[in-house]
Amino acid sequence: MATRTPQPTDIKLRTASRLLEVSFDDGSRFELPFEYLRVFSPSAEVQGHGGGEGTLQLGKQDVGISSLEPVGNYALRLFFDDGHNTGLYSWSVLHQLGTDRQSNWARYLERCRSQPSK
After folding, report:
1. Which of 1, 6, 22, 59 has the fewest CB atoms below 10 angstroms from its CB?
2. pTM of the complete model
3. Predicted confidence (pLDDT) per residue in 45-75, tens digit
4. Which CATH number does the domain housing residue 14 bear?
5. H/E element holding 107?
């Protein structure tokens, strides 16, 4: 039996603090930093076209979101000021990014540390 995807009840783009705040009808509320959303974009460019970790996104600490737009009743398209806008953040992706933020970010930082120095 499929579980129901929580639906957003409130979405706030906080440009000064660089956070996307999303509240869901299951009572959860997440503050998702722009950098986190950019490096975990669901786009093929970031996730890759197969399995694995995808393409490591570096240097996104100061990325901003210039705007967002709803896509049907199921997702948001985020327009990052570095030109990236191809990932659709479905409600389930946003909820999962919020739920798994701590472990995702720890894994991201570990991948950054393992990058060869230039």
Report:
1. 1
2. 0.91
3. 888 766 666 788 999 999 999 999 999 999 9
4. 3.30.2020.30
5. helix 101-113
